[in-house]
Design goal:
single chain; alpha+beta; 3-stranded mixed sheet; 14% strand
């Protein structure tokens, strides 16, 4: 009887070790960004968003960034980024680096970058509105200026 109890305990111990080992076997690093999908906003009706799409492609290549949303007008670019969990302590530095990189690429545009999740959601909604062509130029400018003022308040 004592021998069967010892075998049962060993079986449970082995099962626990296997369970813990397989549960901790996930890929933890954010090195592989190829599987991330960036929504490309294709419209030329109100304002061409090709610059925002190019900026998103450039920014998502950064290893600290998990997702990005961007909208542009003729002279401005608003961009919101999501950062990997372990990089949340370096938000300001990441934000500053992204902004300086984009300012080098687009010197004739005013660029605002945010790591705030509210800005991310606002830009996501605006992107979807543009994608569905549910907005005209006047509404787009109004929404754009609203998000821009929220970003400036945050800063």
């Amino acid at each position: 009887m004592k021998d069967k109890i010892n075998q049962f305990i060993m079986f449970l111990l082995l099962l626990t070790v296997i369970g813990l080992g397989s549960g901790c076997n996930q890929k933890q690093s954010g090195e592989d960004h190829e599987d991330l999908s960036i929504s490309q906003v294709h419209t030329s009706k109100p304002i061409d968003q090709s610059m925002a799409n190019q900026a998103k492609k450039k920014v998502i290549k950064e290893e600290d960034i998990s997702n990005v949303k961007a909208v542009n007008t003729d002279k401005e670019l608003l961009i919101a980024i999501k950062v990997e969990n372990f990089e949340r302590f370096r938000l300001k530095k990441i934000e500053k680096n992204v902004k300086s990189d984009l300012e080098k690429d687009y010197p004739d545009h005013k660029i605002l970058v945010s790591t705030d999740s509210k800005m991310y959601l606002e830009l996501d909604q605006l992107e979807q509105k543009i994608q569905k062509d549910n907005t005209n130029r006047k509404e787009l400018e109004k929404d754009f200026n609203k998000i821009k003022s929220l970003m400036k308040e945050e800063t």
